Amino acid sequence: MKKLPILFGLVFVAIVLVMSSLFIVDERQKALVLQFGQIKAVKEEPGLGFKIPFIQNVEYFDDRILSLDTAAIEVTPSDDRRLVVDAFARFRISDVEAFKRNMPLGMSQARQELQGILLDRIRVVLGEDGVTSNTILSSDRAALMQKITVQSRARAQGFGIEVIDVRLKQTNLPEQNLDATFARMSAERAREAADERARGQEAAQRVRAQADRTVVELESDARRQAEITRGEADAAKNKIYADAYGADPEFFEFYRSLDAYRQGLKGSNTTMVLSPDSEFFDYLKSDVGR
């Protein structure tokens, strides 16, 4: 009976030792077995692992694809038109041993180091000869991002980091250039508007001049036609008068006298002052003309 507590104690110690020697790595992790800071084993596959209790310890590393947003920086393409760009990158820890040796402070140090690599490669690639601001702002930027990715991957590989992809997020003008650019654009639009107004006024002047010319031509032609018609009417009238006079001079004289009466006695309050021997009313005084 006295041996039973001792047995329980031994079993408990054995269980603690066994539990202390086991560790689990899931599918999202990689692990290093360290002994006094030295790497003794690498566990990259998910499952159960073993270590020496109290002497060795396990450090876990994220095996997932991670992301990093870079700070905005100013770059100067070959056309000297400065731009402010920022980017984001996707990366993963590809070699936990190299990562542990080069990044003793862990992921915070790795992110800082990787950001430095990305910013350096962005400046270099976007500042190369032949790379203009239009190239960066056009669909050709895909080739530039691929080049940044390849160069960053080569630089980060020695740290146990694999750069999977780098993408430019925003490409803007520096703040101090925005006002000048806006002023230049406003001046260009104002000049275009002035040109359009000038062309419109010129076209309006041409239309008005053409209209005035057409009016003058139409009025001139109408007057000419009226004079021709009036002349033809007068000629016809004179011919009629001449024919009538030739046919019966006395009747023609009588008709002319009646026409003179009609013209002279227009209106309701017409007053005529004539001498007693005036010949104007000869056809009213007698049934026989002169």
In short, what is this structure?
The protein is of the alpha+beta class. 55% of the residues lie in helices and 20% in strands.
Largest sheet: 4 strands, antiparallel
Computed Rg: 56 Å
Overall residue-averaged pLDDT value: 81
Low-confidence regions: none
Would you list the SSEs in sequence order as H and E? Answer: HEEEEEEEEHHHHEHHH
CATH homologous superfamily classification of the largest domain: Band 7 domain
Number of helices: 8
Sheet-strand content, in percent, reads 15-25%
The domain tally reads 4
CATH domain class of the largest domain:
Alpha Beta
CATH topology type of the largest domain: Tetrahydropterin Synthase, Chain A
Overall outline: rod-shaped
Specify the CATH architecture of the largest domain: 2-Layer Sandwich
Cα separation of the termini:
187 Å
Helix content: 55-70%
Model description:
- This protein has 290 residues and is of the alpha+beta class.
- It has 4 domains: 12-62, no CATH class; 66-172, Band 7 domain (Tetrahydropterin Synthase, Chain A, 2-Layer Sandwich); 176-203; 231-266 and 278-290, no CATH class.
- Helices cover 55% and strands 20% of the residues.
- The chain is built from 8 helices and 9 strands.
- The strands form 3 sheets. Strands 6, 7, 8 and 9 form a 4-stranded antiparallel beta sheet that branches. A 3-stranded antiparallel beta sheet has the order 3-2-5, with no helix packed on it.
- Strand 2 and strand 3 (38-43) form a beta hairpin.
- The longest helix has 73 residues, at 175-247.
- The radius of gyration is 56 Å and the shape is rod-shaped.
- It starts with a helix and ends in a 5-residue tail after the last helix.
- The mean pLDDT is 81.
